[in-house]
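Entry 12.
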Amino acid sequence: MADIDGNLKTISKAIQTTQRLRGSVGRVFSQLRDGMGGGETAGERSKAFLDQLRENLLAVNKEYDELEKLSAAVTKQSDQLPTGSSGLLSLDPVQDKTPLYGQLLQSYKWSNKVHEHAGYTAQLLNQNSLKRSSMMTGLSTKRRKPQSTSHTLPGQYVDAVVANLQRHFPNMNITMTRPFGQSAVLQIGLGRTLQAIVVLRGLLIDRVVVKGFQENLTQEDGKLDIWSKSQFRVFEKISDHATAATLHYQHPIHPDLALQTFLVSFLLNPEFLICDF
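Predicted 3D structure (C-alpha cells):
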C-alpha cells in the first residue's frame, strides 16, 4: 500500500511537470513564430532574440530533466500477473471477445487486493480477543473426555494382556499371531462349539469372525482367512452381533478390561450361544 501511495504522488507531480513543460515548449515556438522584435539596431534585436530563446530553452531543459527524475522514481510492480495462456485473448480478432483480456486483468488485480486486505484483517483479528465477555476468563474450562489410546498400545503390552487372558480362561484356546505387521490377530477355539478370529489394533477390536469348529480358518496358501464368512447361518449371525457389540466394548482408560468383558460376554456366555437367531 505504501508503494502505491508513493507512486500516486509521483505521478501527480509528473503531470504538473508535463503541463509546465508543454507551456515552456509553447513559448519557444511562439517566439520563433513572432521573430525578432523592434529595436534600435539589428544587432540589438538579434541579441535580445537569442537571449530570450536561450532562456526559454533552459526552462524546457529544466522541466524535461525534472520529468525524467520523476519517471525514474516511480516504483515498478515486480510481480507479474499469472495470466499464462490467457494473455493470448488480447490477440483475438473477434470484436466481442477482445475486451476479455482487459477484464481478466481487472479480475486479477481485484483478487490480489482482496487477498492483501484479508491478510491485514487476519492480523487484526489475531491481535484482538473475540470473547463476548471478560468474565469468561475466570471460569474453568469444560472438562473433556479422555482420548482413547487403545489403538496405539505397544506390542509388549498386548502380549501381556493376551497371556493374562489365557491364564484366567483355560477352557479358551487362544493363539496370537501378527500376519499383518504390528496388529495382532487372536485365533480363539472353544472345544467342539466354535472358533473365532478377533483382529486387534492395539487392544481395540477391529473385526470379529465366528465359524464352526469344523470349518477351516486358513486359505489355500496357508494364510489366515479373516474376510470370508461362515457357511452356517447361525455363526454368521453371531459374527454380525459380535461386530456390532465391539462399538460398545471400548474403554479409554482400561482397554484390557474391555477386551476381557467382550470375550466373556460373547464367547463364554451359554445364554448368548443358545439364543434364538
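Annotation: Confidence is low (pLDDT under 50) at residues 133-140. The longest strand covers residues 204-212.
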